[in-house]
C-alpha cells in the first residue's frame, strides 16, 4: 500500500444487505407497513444466498426495523405511536449493534421497574399467571415455538402484576422486538434450561415480596442473555 493511501474495508455480505435494506427504507422505496419481496426475489435482486439474507433480516427484525410473521412474510415496522401514513421518522440509522445495545439497556431498565412493582403489588391471581408462564417452560413437549410463547407469557404476566398500565403498555409496545430477541435466543442457544432457572429466581423473589432481589434477578437474567446474544450475533457477522 502506498504511503498515505486509505485502506478500504470489505464489508461482509450480511452487512451489505443490511445497508441496502435500510437505505431502501430510508429513501421511501419501502414504507412502514410494506411487505418485502419474497426471499427468492430479494436473493436475486441482491445477488446473495439465503443464509446471508436471513441473517440480515434477522438482525433488522431484532432491532425492530422489520417484523417477520410466519405465513405472512416480512414487513417494514411502523414507528411506535405513528400512523403508517406519516413519513418515516427514524432519523439516522445506527448500526445494528448500537441499536441492540440500546434495546438491551431499555428493556433491562423497564423490566427492573416492572418487576419491582410486581413484587410489591402482585395479587394471588397475578402470582398464578406468573407461575403459569414459568411452568410452561417445563412442559415435556416444549417446542421452540412453545418456549417462546411461555417466555412471553412470563414477562407479560410480571408486567401486568405491576398494576401500572402505562409501564406494562410500554413493554407491550416492545413485544415484536422482544419476540425477535427470544427467537434469536432459541435459535442460537438451543435449550431453555438456563432461562427456566433464571425465571424461577425472579418468581421466588416476587413470592418473597423482595423488590430489590426481584430487580437484581431480572437484571442478571436479561444482562446474561443480552451479552450472549450480542456475542453470538457478532461472531456470526465476523465469521469468528
Describe the protein.
It is elongated and about 55 Å long. It folds into two domains: 13-76, Arc Repressor Mutant, subunit A; 96-238, Four Helix Bundle (Hemerythrin (Met), subunit A), CATH 1.20.120. By secondary structure, the protein is mainly α. It has a two-stranded antiparallel sheet with strand order 1-2. The chain is 66% helix and 3% strand. Strand 1 (66-69) and strand 2 (73-76) form a beta hairpin. Helix 1 (13-26) crosses helix 3 (50-62). It contains ten helices and two strands. The protein has helices spanning 13-26, 39-46, 50-62, 96-121, 124-136, 144-161, 165-173, 175-189, 193-207, 211-238, and strands spanning 66-69, 73-76.
Amino acid at each position: 500500500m502506498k504511503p498515505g493511501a486509505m485502506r478500504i474495508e470489505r464489508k461482509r455480505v450480511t452487512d451489505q444487505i443490511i445497508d441496502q435494506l435500510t437505505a431502501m427504507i430510508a429513501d421511501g422505496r419501502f414504507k412502514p407497513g410494506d411487505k418485502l419481496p419474497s426471499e427468492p426475489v430479494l436473493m436475486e435482486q441482491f445477488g446473495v444466498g439465503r443464509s446471508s439474507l436471513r441473517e440480515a433480516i434477522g438482525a433488522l427484525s431484532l432491532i425492530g426495523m422489520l417484523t417477520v410473521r410466519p405465513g405472512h412474510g416480512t414487513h417494514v415496522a411502523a414507528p411506535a405511536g405513528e400512523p403508517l401514513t406519516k413519513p418515516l421518522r427514524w432519523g439516522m440509522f445506527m448500526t445494528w449493534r448500537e441499536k441492540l445495545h440500546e434495546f438491551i439497556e431499555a428493556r433491562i431498565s423497564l423490566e427492573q421497574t416492572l418487576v419491582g412493582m410486581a413484587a410489591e403489588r402482585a395479587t394471588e391471581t397475578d402470582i398464578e399467571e406468573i407461575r403459569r408462564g414459568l411452568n410452561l417452560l417445563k412442559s415435556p413437549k416444549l417446542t421452540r415455538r412453545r418456549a417462546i410463547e411461555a417466555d412471553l407469557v412470563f414477562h407479560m404476566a410480571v408486567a401486568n402484576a405491576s398494576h401500572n398500565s402505562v409501564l406494562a403498555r410500554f413493554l407491550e409496545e416492545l413485544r415484536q422486538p422482544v419476540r425477535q430477541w427470544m427467537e434469536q435466543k432459541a435459535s442460537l442457544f438451543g435449550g431453555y434450561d438456563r432461562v427456566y432457572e433464571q425465571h424461577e429466581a425472579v418468581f421466588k423473589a416476587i413470592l418473597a415480596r423482595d423488590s430489590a432481589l426481584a430487580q437484581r434477578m431480572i437484571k442478571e437474567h436479561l444482562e446474561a442473555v443480552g451479552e450472549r446474544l450480542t456475542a453470538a450475533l457478532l461472531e456470526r457477522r465476523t465469521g469468528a
